[in-house]
Amino acid sequence: MGRFLQIAGLTIGLAGLVLQFCISIPASMEAGRSLLGSIIFLLSFFTILTNIGAVLVYTSLLSPTGYAWLPAFAGFRMRAGVAVSITLVFIVYATVLSRLWHPQGLFLLCDVLLHYVTPVLFVLWWLISGADGRTRWNDISWWVLYPVAYLVYALARAPLAGEVPYPFLDVAKNGVASVALSAAAITGLFLVLCVVAVLADHGVSRVRVSSVR
Length: 213
Prior knowledge:
- With about 210 residues, the chain is mainly alpha-helical.
- It has helices at about 1-30, 35-40, 45-60, 70-75, 75-95, 105-130, 140-145, 145-160, 170-175, 175-210.
- The two termini are about 20 Å apart.
- The mean pLDDT is about 90.
């Protein structure tokens, strides 16, 4: 089952990302951005970056050379960290972002694949095969660097590019206090998910050991 979920997750993740790039870049250029600007804009979405991370985890573990290829993405800390981040993608989109716009056609398909299907597949795979009980509480300090670095990047880019990837990060429109509150809430949710991930990792490991006995 773990192998099947890896292959399914890699296939669907790659398909979703390629399709998203194929339809978003032309649409972005039609909106007035350059080719480079369109690529940078698309890569400014937490969803896209996290799904790329998930694809790299799958690829590193499925490659013939195993852990020798992209070792940073094959490690247990990275696997758990991506599981936390992609769960955040699922929750924030389902509870907040899905209400703000209503995509149609291929854009809707990409949204479903990258916000719902790939997170579910990755978390299921991680629980079945990726979790091994080696995560520690201090790993959380490393995992949280990713969303914090992303937040800094998005806020620093906003005044230069005149746009933000997510409406709740728009300081010019919402004000500093509102953006700070949104950022604090999402960071708090991320930390809660980190705690759940460590507990789940250790719990799954104990179940496996018990089943072997």
